[in-house]
Design brief:
The chain is about 60% helix and about 5% strand. Bound molecules: zinc ion (ZN).
Length: about 450
């Protein structure tokens, strides 16, 4: 058990009991005990943040964002990395700590710490299947998909785009007409971010002062990235290596900005960190359940701030002229997207074949070319992504489906969406345990949330 020195110092004062001061002493005692959980939690939270920073020394992707005290980061970067074995012991101790009580902070920290612990086991050389990674790192249990589902989707796409040449070439040729010219990318991005921000702010109050900047980059393993810098500020990077189609540009920037990652992060910083001092939220370990929630909400977000008609109208009337594109068949683009929707599971399936079934890279690439409708070269690049990020590939499709399934069950989809981003504070019997309870993937899936099993 971690002892809080500040709580320890207050105890004897409160324990001084003699006749004339009995009442005031009792009050002091009560006040003292009410403070204890918070003080202990602050210390556990600090140790969690420092643990995540220390794990980051072993994997450059692990710490996705950090905006806590600069000296903690400097401290973590000093000297040799702390051995994995030592970090495992710390993770073990902290999981035990947070499991001793319930409360919104305990719940979140336990969820995150179980993932950090599992990631450390992986670093320590433990073989972990993709399904095990999904469970221990992201709190999900994805089912393998039926190939018939992919066959059907391909048949549907065939029916939409009949003609000569390979299906991939036909799809590509159709999508090519939506390609935003390089010299228009910046103006179109500005228009998209302004509109999505306006729509998001009309639905949920954004923290005052939240802001972002955009930058165009090349040679990255992703198509866009939101780097959260703290102080309500994000850097949104857009990779221009690949053709950018107008409808997917809207989707991507909504994913990274509004109401996606930037919105999620700035709401967390405002309500958890600035208002409550919950320091655990200043660090974001990429390979953790936080990512499933982040990717799921970011994928579902554009459908929350636009109806289908509003989205098509915005694309057609505002963005297409700005991009210098004419006579685009947006209805058909949407039809095609719907037909292709089941194919979003092709990549996780490719990952399962590669990592769990021991399929050769040639076979996995052929599978992706056939069902993912990508070139051989793209398929090979994606294999590199799978090797680097493992079960992270599940976060997009599984996260999106979990979020949408949850929203479909609620009366007010919009309110429910923003409730996932920033939950309303709950108050338990003990004042000290009140506050927003962050959503976990299990809770989103409607499960009872039994204590999560730690990997061994
Ligand atoms: Zn994302």
């Amino acid at each position: 058990m971690i002892r809080s020195p500040r709580a320890g110092r207050r105890r004897p004062v409160a324990a001084v009991v003699f006749a004339g001061l009995l009442l005031s002493s009792m009050l002091a005692l009560t006040a003292c005990f009410e403070k204890v959980p918070t003080l202990i939690m602050n210390e556990v939270a600090e140790r969690y943040v420092k643990l995540v920073l220390a794990v980051g020394r072993h994997d450059e992707d692990f710490v996705d964002a950090y905006y806590g005290p600069a000296e903690w980061k400097a401290e973590a970067e000093e000297g040799e990395p702390v051995p994995v074995e030592e970090l495992l012991a710390t993770a073990d101790l902290l999981v035990h700590q947070v499991q001793t009580a319930k409360g919104p902070r305990h719940d979140f920290l336990e969820e995150q710490l179980v993932a950090v612990h599992a990631f450390l086991l992986k670093l320590d050389g433990k073989a972990m299947s993709l399904a095990e990674q999904a469970e221990h790192l992201y709190d999900i249990e994805p089912e393998p998909r039926d190939a018939a589902e992919f066959e059907q989707a391909i048949a549907d796409v065939e029916a939409l785009l009949p003609g000569d040449g390979s299906l991939r070439e036909r799809v590509q040729a159709f999508r090519e007409t939506f390609r935003v010219p390089a010299d228009r990318l910046s103006d179109v991005a500005d228009a998209i971010l302004a509109e999505t921000r306006k729509r998001t702010a009309a639905l949920r109050e954004l923290p005052q002062g939240e802001r972002f900047e955009t930058s165009f980059v090349t040679d990255k393993p992703w198509s866009a990235y939101n780097w959260y810098k703290g102080d309500l500020h994000s850097l949104i990077e857009i990779n221009t290596d690949l053709p950018i189609e107008l409808p997917s540009y809207l989707h991507t920037l909504s994913h990274e900005g509004y109401p996606g990652h930037h919105t999620f992060n700035s709401l967390i910083e405002k309500h958890m960190v600035m208002d409550r001092g919950w320091i655990e939220y200043t660090v974001y370990p990429l390979f953790s359940p936080q990512s499933l929630i982040a990717e799921g909400t970011a994928e579902a977000g554009v459908g929350v701030i636009f109806s289908d008609e509003e989205r098509v109208a915005f694309l057609q009337d505002v963005l297409a002229p700005l991009a210098g594109l004419e006579e685009l068949d947006f209805a058909k683009y949407d039809e095609l997207s719907r037909a292709m929707a089941p194919l979003k599971y092709v990549r996780p399936e490719a990952a399962r074949m590669l990592l769990d079934e021991g399929a050769s890279e040639d076979d996995v690439a052929a599978f992706m070319v056939r069902f993912g409708l990508v070139t051989e070269d793209r398929a090979r690049k994606y294999i590199d992504f799978i090797r680097r990020y493992g079960a992270y590939v599940y976060n997009y499709p599984v996260g999106e489906d979990l979020v949408n399934a949850h929203l479909d069950k609620q009366e007010d989809r919009v309110a429910a969406y923003f409730e996932i981003l920033m939950p309303e504070p709950i108050v338990d019997e003990e004042e000290t345990r009140s506050g927003p309870r962050a959503w976990t993937p299990s809770r989103l899936a409607g499960k009872e949330e039994p204590k999560r099993r730690r990997a061994h």
